[in-house]
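Predict structure. Chain length: 227.
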Amino acid sequence: MKKYEIVGGNLPVVICELSAGESMITESGSMSWMSPNMKMETISGGGIKKMLGRLASSDSVFQNKFTAERSDGMISFASSFPGEIKVLNISDGKSMIVQKSAFLASEEGVELSMYFQKKLGKGMFGGEGFVMQKLSGNGVAFIEIDGSAMEYDLQAGEELLVSTGYLAAMEESCTMDVVTVKGAKNMLLGGEGIFNTVVRGPGKVILQTMPITKVAELLIPFIPDKK
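Prediction complete.
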């Protein structure tokens, strides 16, 4: 990729400029606008197993590959929800685990696959999902963040207690677990839920300030009952 630019403030779009022959990979429906010489090809992205994995992680079964033909090209990808687009530099030993549906687009060398939480309880009660997404390989990737992004670099053994839904991404070197909120009164009356997620270093952690699940909860009282 020659260069990229993220613009649009809280309704962001990333505009990528490619050299002739370069390609970008994206999920179905993520392209916003592009130059006429960008050729689109729908691909399986690694065969049946990986297709089913993307389906399990709430992404489209097929991916789209966009290639600049004959000359340099331009292509853009807009976020589907108010927030930020974060840039991840993926390399060997620097894989990232991200929330479901976070992946927006990447260079061709980045591989998207599903990531299973090792303990079922982490996915069922932690709020981040039993199946997450893993970005590995080599290249630049762009992910969607709900609201603003906050980054922390945790040292080995250092922990961060995260409320349900606020964990957006973490390096694969990090681990996560689920703990219950202490005290029955706190669980029932505190309004913070019953479970929290503990993220443990070493590695980078990216949190988000406005999980779409929280927005949905706030909107429910304002949705008219059609009965």
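Summary: Residues 122-127, 184-191 have pLDDT under 50 and may be disordered.
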